[in-house]
Amino acid sequence: MSTSTLTSTTDARVRGSVPAQRVPAQRGTPDARIRDRRPAPAPQGRVRLTRRGRVVVTLFLLALVLAAAVLLGGTSVATGDAGADVPTRTIVVGEGDTLWEIAGEVSETGDVREMVHRIEKLNALPGPALEVGQELAVPVE
Question: 43: which residues sit within 8 A by CB, 6+ positions away?
């Protein structure tokens, strides 16, 4: 720094006015080398990823893993099981039929609640509501 710059900076601090500003350094001076420092080039043969590049690579790999899981997964996505074969027969719901009545007619063991649950699960019913003309798979005991 020159003497005039040093004096003006000191005067500004003493007076309490505008903070001092640095004078741009000339090229080749020690201040210029510090300010103009650039990162060293990456060694040959290595790839340097930026933050955005790492995010893109991570998302791409996650998409590949998800695609492989979907294509190679042989089991049900909902339950993780392939499912067991249950011997069934199909019945058509008539007017006034309820799931409880149908389960009572089909159940040989007399446990109507268990049969209602099995029929709901087998047909993926959200509840005991039925519609006229609906076809239900009913387990054969």
Answer: none
| 127: DSSP letter | S
The answer to whether 99 and 107 are in contact (CB under 8 A) is no
**CA dihedral angle for residue 10, residue 15, residue 16, residue 19, rounded to 10 degrees:** -40
Tokens representing 24?
A: 């741009």
Of the chain, the end-to-end C-alpha distance in Å amounts to 99
What's the DSSP call for residue 81? -
Residue labelled with tokens 């900076």: 9
Model-level pTM greater than 0.85? no
Q: Report whether pLDDT(85) > 80.
A: no
What distance in Å separates the CA atoms of residue 38 and residue 103, rounded to the nearest whole number?
Answer: 79
